[in-house]
Amino acid sequence: MAKNLLVSNPLTPQISTPNPNKPKSRILRHLPVTCSTAIPKSTSPKQRLLTLISDEDRGVKTLKNAAKRSEITAAIDDISELGKGTVTTGDSLSATWRLLWTTEKEQLFIIEKAGIFGTRAGDVLQVIDVGKGVLNNVITFPPDGVFFVRSTIEVASAQRVNFRFTSAVLRGKGWEVPLPPFGQGWFETLYLDDDIRVVKDIREDYLVVERAPYDWKE
């Protein structure tokens, strides 16, 4: 998911002079409610972020809503403050991580358009093993399809990991097509805990993932 998105705010209420003959409840019912007003101020940065991305179809909806994207990235800034000064490139980085939300257009295109090819995108994963220095970016197409990109990784600092793509494979039931590697870069894990991980990469794309309830193997 590490790899090489202004419009007027559609959430701004357009309020006209109320008709005194109409009940107040009917007036209020027509005023839009923004996500920011729907989430209590006492909500933790982590829960606020998870709430904001919960209905965004892994980021597909966010592509068409600049205001929502700004609100989510502001929440990422808030949770990143909690991660400052922490080490996020140790053993706890090793896991199978499942995509919750991203701004990466390439991944979102595949998720959104998979139906054109008679399939659908399943879990989108990032599989990391710090000890072995490897990373697999994976998009599954149930029941049998998968596209994955192999990379080598090297810890560069307390929060940054450098990567280099080594190969890619498109695999179906009983067949496999190898593809050439295509680049290198870095990503920073801004926040990491037992449940989620928040990432920013070399292209300033964002990624929010959760620890998957299973380990993906090639």
From TrEMBL:
Plastid lipid-associated protein/fibrillin conserved domain: residues covered: 46-209
Q: Which InterPro entries does the entry mention?
A: PAP (IPR039633), PAP/fibrillin_dom (IPR006843)
Q: GO cellular component terms? A: plastid
Q: Where is this protein chiefly located?
A: plastid
Biased composition regions of type Polar residues, renumbered to the chain? 1-19
Name the UniProt key words of this record, in alphabetical order: Plastid, Transit peptide
Region Disordered, residue ranges: 1-24
Q: Where does the record place it?
A: Plastid
Q: Transit peptide: is it a keyword of this entry?
A: yes
Q: Which residues form a coiled coil?
A: none
Instruction: Please identify the protein, giving its name as recorded.
Output: Plastid lipid-associated protein/fibrillin conserved domain-containing protein
The source organism is Kalanchoe fedtschenkoi (Lavender scallops)
Q: What is the lineage of its organism?
A: Eukaryota, Viridiplantae, Streptophyta, Embryophyta, Tracheophyta
